[in-house]
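Notes for week 9. Today we move from apo structures to complexes. The key idea is that a small molecule is not decoration. When we ask for a structure prediction with copper (II) ion present, the ligand SMILES becomes part of the input, just like the chain. The input block below holds both the sequence and the ligand string. Read it once before you look at the output, and try to guess where the molecule might sit.
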Amino acid sequence: MPTINIRGMTCQHCVMLVEETLGRVDGVTDVEVDLDSGTATFSEEKPVDMEAVRQAVVDAGYRVA
Ligand SMILES: [Cu+2]
C-alpha cells in the first residue's frame, strides 16, 4: 500500500480535503490520511501515477515531503 508524507495539514478539514483530492486520482481507492503523522495511505485498484498523486496534493494546497 503506497504511503506518502504530506506537509501543511493542520486540522481535520485538511484531512478531509486531502482524502477527497487523492480519491479523485485515477486508480486510487481507500484513502486514509493521518493528521498526527502527516501521512496518507491508499490502495491501488490499478497502477497509480505517483506524479498525478503528488500534483493532486500540490493543487489542494499541500506539499509532498
Ligand atoms: Cu486544516
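The chain has a mean pLDDT of 97.
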